[in-house]
Amino acid sequence: MKKITFLAFLLLAFFQLSAQNVVINEIITSNSTVITDEDGSYEDWVELYNTGTEAINLEGYGLTDISSNPYQWVFPAYWIEPGEHLLIWCSDKNRTDINFPLHTNFKISSGGEVITLTKPNGDVEDSYPAILVPQNYTYGRQTDGSAIFVYFPIPTPGDTNNNATGYTGILTSPIFAVNGGFYSSSFGLIISHPDPEVTIIYTTDGSDPSIDNLAGTSYQYKNEYPYEVGQMPSENFLTKNFQSFQYSTPLTIEDRTSQPNDISTISSTYDSDPSYYIPNFNIFKGTVVRARAYKAGALTSPIVTQSYFVSPQGADCFSIPVISISLDENKFFDYNNGIYVAGEDFDNWRLQNPNTPALFNADSNYDRSGAATEKVGHFNYFVNGSEVLNQQVGIRINGGGTRAYQHKSLRLYARSELGASTFNYPIFPNENYNSYKRLVLRNSGNDFFNTYYKDAFTHELIEKTGLDNQAYQPSVIFLNGEYWGMLNIRERLDRHYFERKYGIVEEDIEILADGYVIDEGSDAHFQAMFSYLENNSLSNDANFSYINTQMDVDNFRDYFITNIFVQNTDWPGWNTLFWRKNTAAYLPTAPYGNDGRWRTAIKDTDAGFSLMLDINDHNTLEFATALGGPIWPNPEWSTLILRRLLENESFELSFINRFADMMNTFFLPERVINLSNQFASVIEPEIAQQYNRWAAPYSFSWWLESQNVIETFAMERPVYQREHIRAKFGISNDIAATLNVNDDTNGFVKINTIDITSDTPGVSVNPYPWTGIYFHNIPVTLTAIPLEGFAFSHWSGDVNSTEAEITYTPAGNFSVTANFIPSEVPATEEPIYFWMMDGSVTNDTPLTALNSSFEVGTEGILSYESCLVGYPFDNTHPNWRKASMERRNSPTDINYMPEANNNLPFASAGMRGLQIKQPFQNEGLENAMIFSFSTLGYENIVFGFAAKDESAADGLVMDYSVDGSTFTNAGLANSNIPLTAAYQLFETNFSTIEAASNNENFKVRIRFSGENLSADNGNRVTFNNFSAKGVEIPLSIPENTHLSFKIYPNPATDVLNVNHSYSDVTFNLFTIDGKIIKGGNLENQQINLSDLQSGIYLLQLTSEGKSETKKIIKK
Fold first, then answer.
1. Taking the CB of residue 12, how many other CB atoms lie within 10 A of it?
2. What Å distances lie between residue 164 and 9, 85, 157, 161, 948, CA to CA?
3. Rounded to whole angstroms, how far apart are CA atoms 445 and 404?
4. Tens digits of per-residue pLDDT, 287-336?
5. DSSP letter string, 858-872
């Protein structure tokens, strides 16, 4: 953030009041809590004030944040009365109806920018400088209309500034001579400030430094509570305090382990004796230094926070990331208001319930939830010893019954009003996201005393099923400088997750959590679906088909199978999460997750894998389909969905086979054990300290034994599980299915839902022959899938067929082999043009054309026609950036084609988008994008792109031209395409339009449809990744050929095989334009292509006086 030093002057030269009647009186550049507009949105605003004695008509006045475009937004005919405070919302909503609040067509940068008010004659009426204003503060005149500007911590929108408290400047934060981090020796920390007149106040106990706390603040806490039945609350209060100090000399930063423990001596449970987890030794301690600057008449500086760790190991002190949390300690530990202690809530509960066991029944301070319990603290995050995040956060206690554990889970909130609206760092290395709004620091739930990774391990186990789950990163925590053990950073399954992953905006997401309780949105759709299941049998295929439009049955199937196999007995009446996008109807062509159906997510599986009970034969299948179950954990309502689905014969078969598939892959014993060992190895270096700090796990040997429990479960569970499946569905026995291929470089076999390739979890690098366990008389589906350059020939073994996909009902063990043969690959679809929106596209500039970024022949051109005559306009014109085509920072991988970008994978950081802005129609003209490209040499043309609506249009209108001038939609299956708020793939197929093929003058046009296309609210439709694909038309090459050659693979990489039965064969290899590049005798029936560039070539083979010419492709 740009720093602003104390303003010792009043900017009188900038603000000239002579001849001014309307002035900019107050302005906010970052509003998140102050006031909302009529839509309920927190938007920036400018307040104008009429200093004169007469009303002034503002019609024709301009307001702008671009000095070269004074009439960026033009006022309507609004009369501002003498002494009136007029609020103008700078929201980019562009509203000019004087009967409603006025909104500009631009937003104000939070970093500060010049705002100018210009008269119709071009004279500047007033101007506001580019000054950085803290969030939710304003900068304005005091008194109204005067030349003196001050900062207002409490803004006065639409009201007088005369009575508000204002400050002439904002102090910058103190400067630390050494950044926080890990050090191997002690040092003196110098804190300074560029203004020698400031007073620096600091703390080393994690509290907020305050000049009002130099004498310290005390709070009370307890270390004993009436846990046992019949006990009463004691009056044995203890006292601690936190304190600020005035800086004068360098602070000693050292290893503080030898110093007495502080907050780690406080009870965090309702135990009568917490000594079993309160350390009786000096724990490792870092030093948190927090400082701020004070000066009379100026706003106090923001707090700067740094965390230091000194030990002989330096940055190698910990093997996993480190989090330092600091806050006023009474926010956590105060008896009355602390959220980390049993506190007064437990004592009050015990007084009202003297004879009730506390376990699972008691109320405590740490059970408080909701925004009112959120505490503000500071968050420093270190990876490999280096700080990568440093920001204020909101903190709450997280979890259910495990809040009662001594080491509690925390939930962290990034908030704009606290300085940063996101955690802007790739917290989870395996995720493709760099930004998160909320994080959970989890104590491993019911697994707290055992492996400390079981839930995260289970999520990783089923990651490739597509089930939504929570990413994981173990970390070490320090609280106010004291070692606080390990907590697992977890991705939170909330509205931000679904927006990040599926593009579902907050208004559209519906989430039901434990017990089908509303977490976001409405449950009306779910309740209607649930009622349908209650009242209709799914044995009727029509009913089952209907329910598949309401819920993704395959997703639910995998969810049930996972929880059943891992023996999750804290489910299904609890630990559930169902979600969907709120749509008016099922949208089968929508992107995954956007079709309006309910789906599930894996959540809190800590109770799985036997939970140290060595009971691996629990019949969780029967448990999950039981009638009349108890209120917890499997009440009857919680088993209804699976019971109803299993009434349908096709689903029952799918469920049985998918269960077998997953046990043969995802849940294969060796895979489960290896993955568990991987998770254990990451945290093993930290387990001893974790146990010493929290008495959990119970001991290091217990932790090792908890891994053995998982290993034993992994070995035994499949046997029991198959027994349960056979009993449930009346199956007599298991059978072994052995699958093979004649050559694993030619193709592979798919059985039911799994590909027998090394990419499938649990399948070895050299998978064939492969054997899996299936069930007697349960039909399985086998599919032979050839690789490029090969074709399926036939099945051999216990099945003989030439059909690539067969259904086989096994009466016993069986073995089959898929046989593949070389095949000339037919002409396949390939990109012939691509328009990629990356950083090379000019930003903030109306565009008229874009050349293709990839083409196989002549360059393609995207031309833009605006509905506004005179487009493009210069930046002084009122229509600047209206009805325009511009770059937009909105990347997507939809329709991205690596082969059209040097085979580079999609990287969102370098990608952008393309926007068409309102209005879309004006005075009989309309916005249109016209793509001109040649299809010479290609047929079966398909034009594709990604697009989304941002409150601007309902749909797109597609047509084309084959003569370069006349456009038509004749022959198109669908020329009117509806838009949604999320990116979707759109493709227009021209394969049935003969004139679209082999045409050097082909054009495609995109226009817009909607109810109000003349609207000018600054909204847009955004596009990305335009492409034209086609199939190359075979070359007509005269051939003297009665020869028989088999060429494979084609396309080829380094070696081309030429199978033949002739004694002597010569070859010549030509470029596509006929230039010979190599030739000679064909040796070993192979041609080396490794020295050739990628492209199309002609291969001429000659033997016995005859020749044959074939087209080959070098990849």
1. 11
2. 20, 15, 11, 5, 45
3. 10
4. 999 999 999 989 999 999 999 999 999 999 999 999 999 999 999 999 99
5. SPPEEEEE-SSTTPS
Residue 288: name the closest of 440, 439, 489, 477 by CA.
477
How does DSSP assign 117-130, residue by residue?
Answer: EE-TTS-EEEEE--
- The answer to whether 436 and 422 are in contact (CB under 8 A) is yes
1082: nearest Cα among 1064, 1098, 1097, 1069: 1064
142 within a domain of the structure (yes/no): yes
In this structure, the answer to whether residues 655 and 577 fall within a common structural domain is yes
What are φ and ψ of residue 638, in 5° steps? -80, -15
CATH number, residue 970: 2.60.120
> Which residue segment(s) compose the domain that 1067 sits in?
1046-1114
Pairing label, strands 1095-1103, 925-926:
unpaired
Helix pair angle (649-663, 700-729), 10° resolution: 150
Domain match, 942 and 854 both? yes
Tell me the pairing of strands 322-326 and 472-479: parallel
Would you call the peptide bond into 572 cis, given omega within 30 degrees of 0 as the criterion? yes
Spell out where 137-270 has E strands: 138-141, 149-152, 175-176, 181-183, 187-189, 191-192, 199-203, 217-222, 237-242, 245-246, 251-253
Question: Number of structural domains, the chain?
Answer: 6
Distance (Å, rounded) from C-alpha 24 to C-alpha 48? 5
- Which one of 1008, 1032, 1056 terminates a domain? 1032
- Chain centroid to CA 205: 35
Distance CA 980, CA 948 (A): 6
Whether residues 1010 and 1067 fall in one domain: no
Sequence-ordered list of residues with C-beta below 8 angstroms from that of 1080, at least 6 positions apart, any chain: 1066, 1067
Token pair belonging to 973: 């299956």
Q: Does residue 389 belong to any structural domain of this protein?
A: yes
- Three-state DSSP class for 241? strand
Helix (H, G, I), strand (E, B) or coil at 649: helix
* Same-domain status, 756 and 809: yes
Final residue belonging to a domain, choices 369, 393, 425: 425
Same-domain check for residues 936 and 995: yes
Token reading at 975? 């020329």
Residue 198 in domain: yes
CA distance 964 to 960: 9
Is 778 within a domain?
yes
Residue in this structure with the two tokens 């006022």, named with its chain if needed: 75
CA-angle at 984, arms to 981 and 987, nearest 5°: 140
Residue found by looking up tokens 């997507």 in the block: 892
Residues 229 and 313 in one domain: yes
How many other C-beta atoms are found inside a 10 Å radius of the C-beta of residue 228? Answer: 11
Residues 825-862 have pLDDT tens digits of: 566 889 999 999 988 888 888 999 999 999 987 899 99
Same domain, yes or no: 277 and 410: yes
Nearest Cα residue to 115 out of 93, 76, 144, 88: 88
- For 651-694, how does the pLDDT look when each residue is reduced to its tens digit (9 = 90+)? 999 999 999 999 999 999 999 999 999 999 999 999 999 999 99
pTM: 0.76
Instruction: Choose between 54 and 1105: higher pLDDT.
Output: 54
Same domain (yes/no): 802, 661: no
| One-letter amino acid of 755 | D
